[in-house]
Every structure is written in structure tokens, then in C-alpha cells.
Amino acid sequence: MELTADNIFQQIDDQCFCLAILPSEVLQTTISILGNLMQQNFYVAYDLLGKKLSFKRMKCKTVEDYYDHDEL
Prior knowledge:
By secondary structure, the protein is of the alpha+beta class. It has helices at residues 5-8, 36-39, 60-66; strands spanning 9-13, 16-19, 42-47, 52-57. The strands form two sheets. Strands 1-2 form a two-stranded antiparallel ribbon. Strand 3 and strand 4 (52-57) form a beta hairpin. The model has no long low-confidence stretch (mean pLDDT 80). This is Peptidase A1 domain-containing protein. Keywords: Hydrolase, Protease.
């Protein structure tokens, strides 16, 4: 999974960006959580039998062209 700046930083205003990653210790857990910012522009596949999680970059334009903007 290759992330871009858009998947890692949240723009607060014209001159301020926040890193959108926290260490798991902050959440008091040993698991990692991929939030919605990191998952944007990716297809996510869940293989329950194989116990695998897969990601593939997608083009949002493809989704926008498929659906009417009112449906999104």
C-alpha cells in the first residue's frame, strides 16, 4: 500500500496541515487502525478464509462517472 500526502495529512487551513497518524500506544492498543483518510482512493478486499486484507489504488473519477452525483 503506497500512500500519498493526501492519505497522511489533513489540511486544517491554508497554512496548517496535521499528520493523521497516531502511534497505537495513544489509543492504548496493540492493533493498528487504518482510518478513512488512509483508505480514500483505494479498493479494499477482505479475504476472510485466507485471513488477508488487500488494497488497490482506484481512480475516484471512475466512481463519480458511474454514479450520479446525487447518489454519492
